[in-house]
Amino acid sequence: MAPSPVRLFVTGGTFDKKYNELDGSLFFEDTHLPEMLRLGRCGLELSVRTLMMINSLEMTAADRALIVEQCRSAAESRIVITHGTDTMVETALVLSDAFPASGHKTILLTGAMVPYAFGSSDGLFNLGSALSFVQVLPPGVYIAMNGKYFPSGRVRKNRETGVFEEF
Amino acid sequence: MAPSPVRLFVTGGTFDKKYNELDGSLFFEDTHLPEMLRLGRCGLELSVRTLMMINSLEMTAADRALIVEQCRSAAESRIVITHGTDTMVETALVLSDAFPASGHKTILLTGAMVPYAFGSSDGLFNLGSALSFVQVLPPGVYIAMNGKYFPSGRVRKNRETGVFEEF
Amino acid sequence: MAPSPVRLFVTGGTFDKKYNELDGSLFFEDTHLPEMLRLGRCGLELSVRTLMMINSLEMTAADRALIVEQCRSAAESRIVITHGTDTMVETALVLSDAFPASGHKTILLTGAMVPYAFGSSDGLFNLGSALSFVQVLPPGVYIAMNGKYFPSGRVRKNRETGVFEEF
Amino acid sequence: MAPSPVRLFVTGGTFDKKYNELDGSLFFEDTHLPEMLRLGRCGLELSVRTLMMINSLEMTAADRALIVEQCRSAAESRIVITHGTDTMVETALVLSDAFPASGHKTILLTGAMVPYAFGSSDGLFNLGSALSFVQVLPPGVYIAMNGKYFPSGRVRKNRETGVFEEF
Prior knowledge:
Four copies of one chain form a homotetramer.
Chain A lengths: L5 E7 L4 E3 L6 E3 L4 H7 L6 E9 L6 H13 L4 E5 L5 H11 L7 E5 L12 H14 L3 E6 L2 E4 L3 E3 L6 E3 L1
Parallel strand pairs in A: 1-4, 1-5, 5-6, 6-7
Antiparallel strand pairs in A: 2-3, 7-8, 9-10
């Protein structure tokens, strides 16, 4: 029994930040997700689509509506979304209104504390984690960070420690 | 509801190979698992124990008996074992005799195709994957590789491609 | 004949930037120079001293006076200074007033376009370069970047390309 | 005054070893030198040519004759050769018969203790070092390792420590 196909939506976040060597700033360009999947020798049937490439502090209600709409129209019932950690909890709440536990879609949001390009990222670990949880968790919206999964609505990011916590 | 504590047994394998710069050979020394868990910002309640540090081609029946015994005496019901990929399937079979699906232990074996120390490893991805599957899969013995999980007894490593396949 | 001892002064710059995972900013903490020298298996008799740890855009006349003073009081006649690339040319000019070609000190400034911690730095290459030039160039003040050396006063950083050029 | 053009000959060695993930062995494929030069933002006028791609323990007299011949026919008077460290001293001796200090070619051999692909190599440091020494040292044959240069005939590799020493 092959695993169900998974849809992977990219929205940006620390995952995909790069270093601009001309002015020393951090910026977004192309996503590193395909390279990370290759590095992880990921064998899942997986289609990747970039929805936006932004810092999640700048994500608007319209951006979130677009994410909901894309999840709705995806043929796959299993969806992973890469997202900045600063407002991941907020986006998860918006998604959980549209995709309740009584539905048939399992949606995992994940992110990174350190850019993948900076060589010391938690991104590869989190990506492996989110792609695994999404295959086995029941329908609903979750966050996968720090090796754990959290049902949306019961999780916050601790701003002092950078760690996600259940409450 | 905090996740169940997880026991992590280290047996060596490509995961932990190092490069000997004096003679150009590959060898084992200390495990990189604690460093990898730190890098992944893993927040699970997790205790790590090194059982052996060997190439899995050299693993004996006595070594496998030791692994079974350690899984049996572990207080945790959720166990991840890092293991060389060459004989991971064989060890999974031995474990599944001792820990059937009707039991209460969930055991995941995982490994790496490229040493973590070589900077381009799939190990971090696989570790995130195995630690996630172990939290949600029902009792039994599984292999986590290539972003998938495989029930023991229904999986082989394709020697030509290095990829794990269900059959 | 053993090579002359070398003094290495650290002033910060991109070389030593780190990523703050709590707010996504870049900042300075400890220098990576000792780790880089270890990685390069550098066998030179070398003493490292951190003079400041700043972005070179914020370097003041007083900071430059301190660098001159430290070069003057150093017992070694061969000195390498790590420095942000944005004002490296300016500091080299200040130093060349104090340490002319007719003197007996050879001073090399070097830097990096990408932080060492970001895993893809030119810093290790430039460090190997500066430590080599400093052993063989005659007295005077130079910049070592892009695999070349430039006498102070005949070099500028091209802001569009990030490359150092002789003029 | 632009720096003289440099010829870079690649012969293999630890510099260019890769990890074969199917059988766990180390092997040679393409050289990493162009990538390393890009990473180092090297701006020298430089032409790279691969002469062979071997472990230096397997280098024959015919291989060394080929290296001598290629150095002789190179238009450039400044040449860097990447080479395995195990027999680098021997090749330097052969070269120094053909290219004495009274000649007009400056030849630097360099290598690495750890493969570049393994993410923790001294190769980038040594490459920056050799490319710098070659621009300023007088004619003759030298080895550049550990941040130092050694005239051929006065250097050995310490097999216990992996460090190059003058004698």
